[in-house]
Amino acid sequence: MKACLIPLAVVLSGAILPVFAQSTSSEAALPEVKVTGVAGKTYHHKSTTTANKTDTQLLDTPQAVTVISKDLIRDQSMQSLSDVIRYVPGIVAAQGEGNRDTAVFRGNSSTGDFYVDGIRDDVQYYRDFYNIDSVEALKGSNAMIFGRGGSGGVINRVTKQPEWRLVREASIALGSWNHRRMTVDMGQGLTDSTAMRINTVVEDSGSYRQGFKLKRSGVNPALSLRLGRDTLLALAYEHFTDERTADRGVPSYQGRPLNTDAGTFFGNPDINTTRARVDAISALVDHDFGQGWTVRNRMRYAGYDKFYQNIVPGSLNTAGTMVALSGYNNATQRKNFFNQTDLIFTLDTGGINHKFVAGLELGRQETDNLRNTAYFLTIGPNITSSNAPLSSPMANSPVTFKPSATDANNSGTVTSKSIYVQDQITFSPHWQLVAGLRRDSFDVDFTNKRTAENLKTTDAPVSPRLGLVFKPFKEVSVYASCGLAYVPRAGDQLSSLSLSNKNLDPEEFKNLELGAKWDINPDLSVSAAIYQLDRSNVAIADPTDASRSILVDGQRSKGLELGFNGKINRDWSIMGGYAYQDAKITKTQSATVLAGVTLAQVPQHSASLWSRHDFNPVLGVGLGIVYRSAIFAATDNAVTVPGFSRLDAAIYYTLNKAVNVQVNIENLLDKKYYAFANSNSNITPGSPRALRVSLHARF
């Protein structure tokens, strides 16, 4: 806790306390008045149960949080997590090698900091929103709530739950490049004590990228049972599959993305494929003892089967006429089991209110990884690279996938035990404090089947959290917070353990943050945050002995985030934000990762704005702009991906109470741009102008 107490005290004494020394703490507290807005579409969320494990107003949460509602997802016809991330200041989507969701949280790239209903969902695949009620992005170090990882933030999907009301909805979407998608959402109360809901999706689509195909399907039945007046049991099962072309984008040339048609495919779309299958069972038991005491147990068991295979573009020759192609495939099977038990209770001590959370989390993850290299045997028995002309950058030579001398073939079992306690303290109507502490026990049993080497490690990091909230007015809050997070040497995918790093301490991330939030009215909020995020315990080769590794303070991210969402008036909804990021390497780590360089895929400036206006109950329009300044494709800063501005639009037309139609146009002005990067040789061109027509029906 000391690591947070000292810097937070400095921040508070230097930046907050002098400003509010003349606070109105002597004013009489007014009774709380709850205002319920008109039912209907909204981009605005006032609270979260994820950031503190209690139902807490965002205004009282000492952390930058962005919530994307299901209405915004529908209004923009969002199709991927990268679509959501565009509206989250401080987080940037990366390419993810064309086979997975990847987010860069305040400069820290992650493929594992993803959650569903507060439980880890960390396998590398593309997630869907067919069964999602909202998406929460919580920024800063989050280990006290989420455990390992959460170095720069996490993304949590909140699923649709059974309700004791009739739900009958279906949507069909058709669009450019044979986009075809259908979703169904049905639910109702079966009895006074039983409710059900089932969500399904089927999609079969193409893309502006040559040869790209996407097929996905999912079904998510859920059942809620009232076991007496004070106990709720919720059960759910999900079966989801996603199969698509693994698209690694285009290479670079002379420090810029290759100037080629947006649809040009490098590799072989008949070979490049990625598929994921997820089967997950979840259960929730929530019991209210009364007098402010609640116990909640949440369980999730998930089995993942993930495979991807690709031919990858590499460097161009000096003349810029030939591109090197290589390839590999990778298979991952993982079984996750997590169980969380939280005891939530309130106490009043001398006029001070405490809301405590005491919790226990148990986890077990079993993982098998296997990688094979692509060999071009018609060229030679050990040839792993083939050159292709830019006029036809396809891998037409036969390819054989087999293990090389260094390809991964491993299995691992991770068991975790975590205990945590948090107190949300309300001193007065003006002052609140959130203080928490978590201790994880993280055991890894890792076997390299290629070398028959077995490695075992145990880490027991302690993760504090401290946040102070000052409310000069009921609708305004100012906060300061500090949090720590850790990433063990096994990495966010549990596959990075080796003999050389197994005894090293976990990487550590410390986040200091100052922020302010203002509920302008019950349906419109704005927020601002400045932060400093330091990454330490980065392993590098010892300059005096290459056989050893040493730990250094490796990088620092500093930034400003602004966000706003809600309704200007009854007919005008907005969502948007701006982020400034300065993310640098602070210690030379290799010949290509030098002190002072900018972290990969982190724009200095990014912004987004979406506005929907309904002229009348029948007709509405939406208009949005997305801006991102230039980024470096890799940390060597050798390739610059240009910045861009993109304009999107939508038209909404209500045929009757049961049916409405919407038309979404992405990249309205048909600008050429580059959307994502993974490395200097893997850069994804953005989509040309795309049209999508959706029919939504209630029955």
Number of strands: 43
Average pLDDT, rounded to a whole number, is 92
Oligomer: single chain
Low-pLDDT regions? 7-39
Largest sheet: 22 strands, antiparallel, barrel
Shape verdict? globular
Number of helices: 4
> How many whole angstroms does the radius of gyration measure?
25 Å
> Beta-strand percentage?
over 45%
Structural class assignment: mainly beta
* Relative helix content: under 10%
Q: Note the gap between the termini.
A: 54 Å
Question: What's the structural blueprint in terms of helices and strands?
Answer:
Elements: H1 2-16, E1 47-48, E2 56-57, E3 65-69, H2 70-75, H3 81-85, E4 91-93, E5 103-105, E6 108-110, E7 114-116, E8 119-120, E9 132-139, H4 143-146, E10 153-159, E11 167-175, E12 179-191, E13 194-205, E14 214-226, E15 231-244, E16 252-253, E17 256-257, E18 273-290, E19 293-316, E20 322-349, E21 352-375, E22 386-389, E23 400-402, E24 409-426, E25 431-448, E26 453-459, E27 462-473, E28 476-487, E29 507-521, E30 524-536, E31 538-542, E32 545-552, E33 555-569, E34 572-585, E35 605-614, E36 619-628, E37 631-632, E38 640-641, E39 644-654, E40 659-666, E41 674-679, E42 682-685, E43 690-698
